[in-house]
Design brief:
Elements: H1 12-29, H2 36-57, H3 67-87, H4 92-101
Length: 104
């Protein structure tokens, strides 16, 4: 999906709200208790899926993979990182500016 250049960019706050709403629906539908193991486990699971999708996309994994598959898995991982940060009360934008910006 390409963003319309006349639209404002999506913010991290908006993305965090999006993933929180989706995760709330998912947890309710499947009666999931989002405890520490769930947050950490989902990030680990999604990182593994990014790895697998990348390897498939470059012909080094079992089966075929596409760029779209890799993008979907990166989106999943990022979504779970945002959920974890929200759960821990971490402002990702501020943390990134403090950590990465310190090198500039």
């Amino acid at each position: 999906m390409t963003q319309d250049p006349t639209e404002e960019p999506v913010t991290l706050v908006q993305l965090s709200d999006l993933v929180r709403r989706v995760a709330d629906l998912y947890a309710e539908r499947f009666q999931i208790d989002r405890d520490p193991a769930w947050y950490l486990g989902k990030m680990s699971e999604e990182l593994g899926e990014v790895n697998a999708a990348y390897l498939k996309s470059v012909g080094q994994g079992r089966g075929e993979g596409s760029r779209g598959d890799l993008e979907d898995e990166v989106a999943n991982l990022f979504g779970f990182v945002l959920l974890f940060a929200d759960w821990q009360g971490i402002d990702v934008a501020t943390a990134l500016q403090r950590k990465w910006g310190s090198y500039l």
